[in-house]
Design brief:
With 272 residues, the chain is mostly helical. Helix content is 81%, strand content 0%.
Length: 272
């Protein structure tokens, strides 16, 4: 076996060990949040059910239509909540694994994007809980036909709020997506600004696909996405301008070095 082959196998083995360690650290982070979440899972479920319970008619309550739902549904909530809360640790482990293979300017860009994407995802979830849920659930209970008693299944409710959390969390990542696309050269900020009318249409289409079929939740998702689009466009323009200034500055220094070298080569030699 050649030395090059042994070096390649050694490098692959070290990468696999590093990947195993990063996955292990991520799982430990999830378990740290899952254990207390499982202990207080019923209390956590009561907090998440509060937006619906506040707008239910007098005497109405949530129900469990499956035998194991009262036990499994809170545990499912605790597990998903543990993953959500450990997202910063998971992203850090991903960053620590790929960072050695990145250039310096790429490392400078990736870490702020990971931090901002995590923050925006949490902001989307908070917006859904504090703003969207009270309005949407209030609308659903008001439009119920006469004589229909609202009794929501706890498992169906959990699936619904998970889908809404995911929809708003992903939608709030729009500025990060814009910055990545412009930085990769896929599209320029000026082109996005010119296509703004088409962006508005697509935003409402995406909001329609990600939310339940009601106007309130669609509008409540589309309006923040439009604002986030403008924020992402503004940051992308600033980032692109800064990159151009750095390129111009680097080019000027190189030209100056070439000119100094040419002056040194053309200068007459001292004759003693």
């Amino acid at each position: 076996m050649s030395a090059q082959t042994e070096q390649t196998e050694g490098t692959l083995f070290s990468h696999l060990l590093e990947l195993r360690n990063r996955l292990l650290y991520s799982m430990i982070g999830v378990m740290v949040f899952f254990i207390p979440g499982a202990i207080y899972s019923r209390e956590v479920y009561s907090v998440l059910a509060q937006p619906l319970m506040e707008v239910l008619p007098q005497g109405a309550s949530m129900i469990a239509t499956e035998v194991a739902s009262p036990f499994l549904t809170p545990l499912k909530l605790a597990f998903v909540l543990a993953i959500v809360l450990s997202i910063p640790n998971i992203l850090y482990q991903v960053w620590a694994f790929v960072a050695p293979g990145l250039y310096r300017h790429e490392r400078r860009l990736v870490f702020p994007l990971l931090a901002s994407s995590t923050f925006l995802f949490y902001c989307g979830m908070a917006f859904a809980y504090f703003v969207v849920f009270p309005l949407v659930f209030g609308f659903f209970t008001q439009v119920a036909p006469a004589g229909v008693q609202i009794m929501t299944d706890i498992k169906s409710y959990l699936d619904f709020i998970f889908s809404m959390f995911l929809a708003f969390g992903v939608a709030f990542e729009l500025p990060v997506a814009i910055i990545l696309l412009t930085h990769a050269g896929v599209v320029s900020p000026d082109t996005l600004a010119e296509k703004r009318p088409y962006v508005v249409v697509w935003v409402f289409v995406i909001a329609m696909l990600l939310t339940p079929p009601d106007v309130i939740s669609q509008t409540l998702l589309a309006i923040p996405m439009l604002l986030l689009f403008e924020i992402g466009l503004f940051v992308a323009r600033r980032t692109a301008k800064r990159s151009e200034d750095e390129e111009i500055h680097t080019l000027t220094e190189e030209e100056m070095e070439k000119q100094l070298d040419s002056y040194d080569s053309d200068a007459p030699e001292d004759k003693t």
